[in-house]
Amino acid sequence: MTLPDRFRDWFAAQGWEPHPHQLQLLEATRDSLLIAPTGGGKTLAGFLPSLVELTEPHRGMHTLYVSPLKALTADIARNLSRPVADLGLDIRIEDRTGDTRAGQRARQRVDPPHVLLTTPESLALMLSYEQAPRIFGGLRRVVLDELHALAENKRGDQLMLALARLRSLAPDLQVTGLSATVEDPQGLLAFMGGGQVIHADPGPEPDIAMLPTAKPPPWAGGGGHYAVRDVLDQVRQAQTTIIFINTRAQAELFFQALWAVNDDNLPIGLHHGSLSRESRQRVEAAMAAGELRAVVATGSLDLGIDWGAVDLVLQVGAPKNVKRLVQRIGRANHRYNAPSRARIVPANRFEVIECVAALQAVRERDLDGDPRGPGPLDVLCQHMLLTACAGPFDADALFAEVRRAGPYRDLTRADFDDCLNFAATGGYALRAYDRWQRLMQRDGSWRLRDPRAARDIRMNIGTIVESEMLRVRMRGRGGAPLGEVEESFAATLLPGDTFLIGGQTVRYEGLRDMVVEVVKQPTKEPRIAVFSGVKLATSTQLSHRVQALIGDPAHHASLPRDTRDWLALQSQVGALPQDGVLTSESFAHQGRWHFALYGFAGRNALQTLGLLMTRMMEDAGLGPLGFLSTDYALLVWSIDPVRDPAPLLDRDGLREGLGDWLAGNAVMKRTFRNVAVIAGLIQRNLPGTRKTGRQATFSSDILYDTLRRYDPDHLLLRITAQEARHGLVDFDRIEDMLDRNRQIDHRMLDRVSPLAAPLLLEKGRVPIAGKGRERLAEEEAAALMAEAGLA
User: Fold this and answer.
1) Bridge partners of 439?
2) Taking the mean position of all CA atoms in its chain, how far away is CA 315?
């Protein structure tokens, strides 16, 4: 296919020339993965073949666009409207997400638009209706935007199963994947199902650096509030700024701190996933209209949003992941020939080192990422139930279809049959209960035993299992929605308590129909809602970079002067953690022995290691009293000292301890609950009601204990064991840490070491705002640093 003259004229009218990769994609005759930098015209490249083909009449849906974010679908709809109008194309473009009104969703099943913009969950839901063959039968193209982000979690597996179904419904389908940050192009292509990779010119180097601040970062903490005036100065100097914060709670706090010093009353917005849809849409519309000077945001704005006025990105807190940092940097100067401009604000002294390592990785184009494992079976169980909702299916045909999905290409028939058995009966121990007898076989086909079950199955679709969230509204009839807070947080509130949401302080009045009712309370010190959000962990590759940077004094010149002095003192008092060496130290402090291990394995892995090591220390009679973990270090305090850590790091002993600990542990029960919800064993949503988080947890705990006792080889228990090891527990990272660091360097010290001092501050840190506590924290830090020789 070549570019028609009317399209060339349109490009010329914009002052543009089609990029080579856009023309390559237009001419492609097979599935393609386009890797192009942010601002490189990926989205237009993905839609260009569709727009050219839609110059001819087409009945029904022609193109399906799938993205990981609802905000991105709305942004794409805005950006597509201009070329469609300019070219005089008579086509209908609509979105279909969780924010789309029920009436429009119903109409789309009867009269689908030419171009539908959606998310993986909404696509899976549409495929579960009996009208799916008619809706998608004429589909010609699928565009998968930000594919790398989808491939990182179960939403991507769900999407690939849906794509396999679409290929069956529309055999001539052509698929295009779009991504800017890919560490393994062939791996991502295989995930998509094969095809060709098209590389665009990477564009100019980004303008990135650490933000100079009037005050140095604190020794501990994660808020970055010390730099709030420096951040506001950057906002004043820029046209429009996005300030990325890693968690929702920190975003609320930083937004409040920013407003407290915003003497010029600059228009600044707040955007994160726990805010109400109305609040998010107001901020997005204001940004698109150029009415905001800055927006404080979380991962909700990481991907693909095209706001041309944004000329600066600020990352407050260590990025934790190089790919994420590259993605966020790309939000600034979203043009192909303009370098993105970004500044990073480390939240504490240790994060300075991580930020320097991350900036080096960005400049070297060294992206991080872990190899993907096989497609998870709980997602396949959900897919089978949704397939049955659309109508009877043949098991052999479905098995062949599923194996066409990239993540499931190596699926065995035994695992497929186990999933089918679970979907049909719930498994051996549960087959006697009617509620789990969902599928039956008749005339060689599998179908729903009771067609009315389709509604319940559809209401529980999805692969994201977050903490139970309760809506927050202003009290009174028609009170404005503000967002959501965790049920566990709401359970602690008493009438009169205050908390922060949407950048404002509110007072809790009561709970009505599972809705938290509040009134404005601007004068009182707020409590802080602990939002679930995305819990970021430092990537393995970035952790390795940090360890290598610390361990090689020849590279310390890239660090700020105070950080260099800190590490130099560490080398005098103890030892610098080096690549290939597991460094640890023991010292006495305030009448207790402390053991610090610098593992650089991530918070989850080191927390698991702490649990296992303290059990072994208990057996050894060392009297462990507690521990804490960060992404880089583990600190254990005890009555007696650890003089030789080798026995506590024995691989066989750790594996045995992990098995014993996981058997009845709450971590396993939490993992089982997530697996059971995705697989459809536990239904959170039912017509007219919704289980509370406590009810769902109680149900899953009973089921877990029952299956362990009567059906220990149950499919969901096997999935749970595998996921706990690789996910919440991160035992793989512990083994990687031991593999990479074969040598142990343990030091017995006569005082607190410089590297351990910030860990002791973490141990005593209380996350409550207030100047009095800030003064106490500063005094405690000064005393502790003096003890470590840093005063």
Assistant:
1) 448
2) 16
How many whole angstroms separate alpha carbon 469 and alpha carbon 467? 6
Residue 702 token pair: 């009973």
In single-letter form, the type of residue at position 581 comes to V
234-269: pLDDT as tens digits:
999 999 999 999 888 888 889 989 999 999 999 999
What fold is seen in the domain 5-199? Rossmann fold (3.40.50)
For helices 5-13 and 70-86, the axis angle rounded to 10 degrees is 110
Closest CA to 80 of 45, 128, 34, 56: 45
Fold category of 207-363 in CATH: Rossmann fold (3.40.50)
Is residue 148 a contact partner of residue 189, using CB atoms and an 8 Å limit?
A: no
CB atoms within 10 A of CB 514: 13
The continuous run of DSSP H or E covering 13 comes out as helix 5-13
CA angle 437, 439, 442 (to 5 degrees): 125
pLDDT, mean of residues 484-509: 78
pLDDT-derived band at 154 (thresholds 50, 70, 90) equals: very high
Q: What is the dihedral of CA 100, 106, 110, 114, to 10 degrees?
A: 0
The residues facing 64 across adjacent strands are: 116, 142
- β-pairing, 63-66 with 141-144? parallel
Q: Please, are residues 185 and 41 in contact by the beta-carbon 8 Å criterion?
A: no
* Residue-wise pLDDT tens digits, 407-440: 999 999 999 999 999 999 998 888 888 888 999 9
Give me the half-sphere count of Cα atoms (radius 13 Å) on the Cβ side of residue 59: 3
HSE of 486 in the Cβ direction (CA atoms, 13 Å)? 15
Percent of the chain at pLDDT > 70 equals: 90
Domain ranges of the chain: 5-199, 207-363, 469-528, 540-663+730-787
In whole angstroms, what separates CA 734 from the centre of its chain?
22
Q: In this predicted structure, what is the pLDDT of residue 488? A: 60
- Which structure tokens are listed for 182? 């890919």
Nearest residue to 153 via CA among 193, 118, 121: 121
Could you count the other beta carbons within 10 Å of the beta carbon of residue 505?
18
Fold: same for 5-199 and 207-363? yes
Give the span between the Cα atoms of 32 and 24, in whole angstroms.
10
Tell me phi and psi for residue 322, to 5 degrees.
Answer: -65, -40
